[in-house]
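Molecular record:
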Amino acid sequence: QVQLVESGGGLVQAGGSLRLSCTASGRGFDRYTMGWFRQAPGKEREFVAAIVSSGESTYYVNSVKGRFTISRDNAKNTVYLLMNSLKPEDTALYYCAADFSLTISQAIVIRTGNPRSWGQGIQVTVSS
């Protein structure tokens, strides 16, 4: 199991960009699927993006495709989420997650397993 610490959140105007980082401590980072989830006020936590252990495959929820990019640096035990063209509806608490399964149908993530580790969450606020 790894411990996860997020950074890079904040307040940005609509159309702007932010890059979230998540650094893991502990062993096994390079074996885990890593990802980002988010939870807006009054809503359930939702999957945002995932990247497999090798970094060769990435997956996104439809609402962020073409705007967000997930990447990882296994040498630094870090996963990133670059968020461009941000919209007010992207406002949420963003969570880094480690070691979870993906159920994929026609290149779409239809289900995720429960991550073994979660970060503490970091706020992203997009003003209109």
About this structure: The mean pLDDT is 95. The first strand starts at residue 3 and ends at 7.
